[in-house]
Specification:
Blueprint lengths: L3 H5 L3 E2 L6 E2 L17 E2 L16 E10 L3 E8 L5 E5 L11 H5 L5
Antiparallel strand pairs: 1-2, 3-4, 4-5, 5-6
């Protein structure tokens, strides 16, 4: 029997660019497209809860680096304005996030 987290860590089609996005293999959630970095506002409180009703596009607006969490992409919902962070998937063997492209996302 699959765990709840396994059922939620699924691939998806990017709502912004239309490319297919594969789930991460390391047990973490990929909430964004590795090509355009856009996401959807589907989680409310915790990664994978899928309780948000907004469903707006989450635009990548910036990035931060923290020693414990590494590079994180900062997103802002184009509908409600909520901002969230998610770890960049730089080490994914199938569809890694591109650090050079990530560095180009900035409001600095």
């Amino acid at each position: 029997m699959k765990k709840k987290r396994d059922l939620e860590n699924t691939g998806f089609t990017c709502a912004n660019c239309g490319r297919e996005v594969l789930p991460l293999l390391n047990g973490s959630y990929r909430n964004h497209c590795p090509y355009c970095f856009y996401s959807l506002h589907i989680d409310l409180e915790t990664p994978g809860d899928r309780r948000a009703t907004c469903q707006g596009l989450m635009k990548p607006i910036d990035w931060v680096y923290q020693s414990k969490k590494g590079y994180q992409i900062v997103f802002e919902c184009t509908r409600c304005g909520k901002q969230i962070r998610n770890r960049a998937a730089l080490d994914d063997p199938r569809q890694p996030d591109d650090l050079v492209k990530l560095a180009q996302i900035t409001n600095r």
